[in-house]
Amino acid sequence: MPIAITPDFDGQTVITTFEMTPGTCSDVLDALNDAYEAVIRHQPGFLGGALHVNDAQTRISTYSRWEKRGDFQAMLRTTEMRERNRKIAALCTHFEPVMYEVAAVF
Asked: ABM domain spans which residues (predicted)?
């Protein structure tokens, strides 16, 4: 389902960037797909998300929307996501989730 970006959205937007070598990009993408299918999309407050891969296969960005900030934070604290994030982190050189608010839509 497409995610409509509107300036009046009062929930939480999270953009996470994962950096890796081209050799591990497929593994990270598989792990993220599995996390979204098995865990993340079933969490309270999850509204939708998307995965993006750059041409060089050195970065993956995820975009997710949540009803509220606490919903995203609660998902991160679940035992299953803590274990999954440790495995994903081992495949990456760096990853960082950042919470955003919509400032403008064009």
From this structure: 12-102
Task: Please check the confidence at residue 12 and state whether its pLDDT lies above 60.
Answer: yes
The answer to whether position 6 is within a domain reads no
**What's the number of domains the chain is made of?**
1
pLDDT at residue number 1: 53
Residue 37 sits in which domain range? 12-100
SS3 letters across 43-100: CCCEEEEEEEECCCCCEEEEEEEECCHHHHHHHHHCHHHHHHHHHHHHHCCEEEEEEE
Whose CA is closest to 92, among 42, 31, 10? Answer: 31
> Does the pLDDT at position 2 exceed 70?
no
Q: What is the pLDDT of residue 6?
A: 86
Q: How far apart are CA 1 and CA 80, in angstroms?
A: 25
Looking up residue 63, the CATH number of its domain turns out to be 3.30.70.100
Residue 5 lies in a domain: no
